[in-house]
Amino acid sequence: MFNLILFGPPGSGKGTQSDKLIEQYGLKHLSTGNLLREEIAHQTKLGLEAKHYMDQGQLVPDEVVIGMIRSALQANPNAKGFLFDGFPRTVAQAEALDKLLAELNEEISIVLALEVSEDELVQRLLNRGKTSGRSDDTDTGVIRARLVEYENKTSPVAGHYQKFGKVKRVKGEGSIDDIFGSLTREIEGKLSA
Ligand code: ADP
């Protein structure tokens, strides 16, 4: 299996690049943000609990998202590999993911970290909010809260995988195709190593 984490702050282009990467490499896309929004749309108990955090720009509790990922891994035993998008978002989630993969005799192959300046992130999220229908993209206060959560809780995840030499940093500004090109270069390098 080839298991990739696409890492980066809210608005760094993870969703856009994920769509292109799963097509190119035949990976199963696991986006915890999308999975949570599906739960909300179906008004499940999990969805209703998660919404309360998401509306405030806070992270949903680790147990909730780890449980979702565990189910998704079990539901796709024959996948060629997984692309994790928006997960793991805390060091505890990263440790849980490593353990779940180890149970399958698998591991994370590479962590691609998209780098985008904070001003650009806020601009992109506000722009997305005009059309995405996502309430967490229209309020500057909620956007700032998400960026603070990212800084405090999520950015240490890069350090966790750096210990294992798995992190490649990629400039996330420029055209979608140029960024995709940079990401695929890193993947090709890893696949041929
Ligand atoms: P973005 O990266 O643009 O913020 P996402 O769709 O990845 O968008 O996430 C939206 C919201 O869902 C987050 O602000 C958070 O509340 C919740 N969420 C998504 N993934 C996780 C996760 N792995 N752990 C905790 N909360 C999460």
Defining key terms:
single chain; 193 residues; alpha/beta; Rossmann fold; 5-stranded parallel β-sheet; 8 helices; 5 strands; 59% helix; 12% strand; binds adenosine-5'-diphosphate
SSE topology sketch:
Blueprint lengths: L3 E4 L6 H12 L2 E4 H10 L3 H10 L7 H14 L6 E4 L5 H13 L6 E6 L2 H15 L7 H23 L4 E5 L4 H16 L2
Parallel strand pairs: 1-3, 1-4, 2-3, 4-5
Helix pairs in contact: 1-8, 2-3, 4-5, 6-7
Bound molecules: adenosine-5'-diphosphate.
Adenosine-5'-diphosphate binds next to helix 2 and helix 3.
The gist of it:
The chain is an alpha/beta fold and 193 residues long.
Structure description:
This protein has helices at residues 14-25, 32-41, 45-54, 62-75, 91-103, 118-132, 140-162, 176-191, and strands at 4-7, 28-31, 82-85, 110-115, 167-171. 32% of the residues are buried. It has 8 helices and 5 strands. 59% of the residues lie in helices and 12% in strands. Strands 2-3-1-4-5 form a 5-stranded parallel β-sheet. It has a single domain, classed as Rossmann fold. With 193 residues, it is an alpha/beta fold. Residues 10-11, 32-33, 36, 53-54, 57-60, 65, 86-87, 89, 93, 136, 146 line the site of adenosine-5'-diphosphate.
